[in-house]
Amino acid sequence: MSDPVIRVENLGKKYIIGHQKQQNYKTLRDAIAEKAISLKKQLLKPLGNNIDDRNRKEFWALTNVSFEIKQGEVVGIIGRNGAGKSTLLKILSRITEPTKGRIYIKGKVSSLLEVGTGFHPELTGIENIYLNGAILGMSKAEIKRKFDEIVAFAEVEKFLYTPVKYYSSGMYVRLAFAVAAHLQPEILLVDEVLAVGDIEFQKKCIGKMEKVAEEGRTVLVVSHSMSTVKALCSKAVLLEQGQVKAIGLVDCVIREYLNFNQADTAEKIVKDEDHLTGISKLRVQKIRLINSVSNLFRVYWQQPISISLDIEVFEQIEEVAFGAGIRTIDGTHVYTVHHDDNGTHQLWKFEPGEYSIEFTLENSLRPGLYKLHIGADQGHTSSKNICWLDIINVEILDHSENGEVPLQNNSGIVIGNSTWKAPKIFTG
């Protein structure tokens, strides 16, 4: 049995949370004021003045996390939003330090934690390949040797001389993944990067990570898609509220994860960290199920799913298309719709401020638990993701409001209707 290449021992990460209103843009005056307040705290601290401590509290994102991963293993890190998955990968990537405990890592680590991390928006695709490769520890000679492979994998040949600020989110993720995956690291860490890629690219990425593992290297992947985890990983770690709830064979851990999933409350406050991408221009503050049952994100069978979104826009933005979609809890994509699917292509324009948006999804789903994702794109020809949420569990009850139940002799995720004709019917 080989020695572990990653060992995590009693890992804990604590954050101090203040009750101050978040500011997205900081002026020089704000910076000076914050410096003055910080200096005042330092001067008062020896005198025992702890007045400001009343507005601060501790939050443990991880508590006593321990596990080992051996060379060549492909391991999925799963759990609900806020479970501590991304915090764990940031610690393993040496981006942040643990509050307690320790980690042991043997080998070169390459991490892809956010779409386009390390990219400079004003630089071209070529320039960002060299910049991102250097940030991830690649020499110029290595980048040059791998350059053609990276470009071919990312499929951005036509845009190599274009500043990446004009790239769509799909182009961003393809190029970022291509650079990270071609570094030939001993350990590759991937955090929910496939969330904004198209289906074909996801398959391509999974194939690349499988090849990395076949070469004896180690892969850790955070994903909300259980189908991706199941297809890629042999082992999984389940986190719940910052602690390891289960670790072992991927099928067993996924089964335990699915068993404790349940419908969310009918009104969900959205935090910054819930947004997978793009909170600089637009942020969802609250999601509410208008026609909820028992004050949960739950509707009757065949009842439409009516949603209200409270959003905040930080700067003027044009050509915005909102969308929503449904997946099964294990990650199977059911459908996605956009507000301009009627063919009019009437995209929306927002000035800075707060808005409320309502939409209704038709419900032909079979009873069960599903994942609702919500997002917003910008642009017609080169759609760029500016907001992406994947945090709501919605339950379809096993009966209609008047007690009717679906037929059990048909199968599938959705309930379809059909019309049949035959030239002549014979009965015996």
UniProtKB/TrEMBL annotation:
PANTHER family linked: TEICHOIC ACIDS EXPORT ATP-BINDING PROTEIN TAGH (PTHR46743)
Name assigned to this protein: ABC transporter ATP-binding protein
Pfam families given in the database record: ABC_tran, Wzt_C
Alphabetical list of CDD domains matching this protein: ABC_KpsT_Wzt, Wzt_C-like
Organism: Floridaenema fluviatile BLCC-F154
SUPFAM superfamilies named in the record: P-loop containing nucleoside triphosphate hydrolases
Keyword Transport in record: yes
GO terms assigned for molecular function: ATP binding
Chain ranges of the ABC transporter domain: 39-266
Keyword terms of this UniProt record: ATP-binding, Nucleotide-binding, Transport
Membership in a protein family: Belongs to the ABC transporter superfamily.
PROSITE patterns (alphabetical): ABC_TRANSPORTER_2
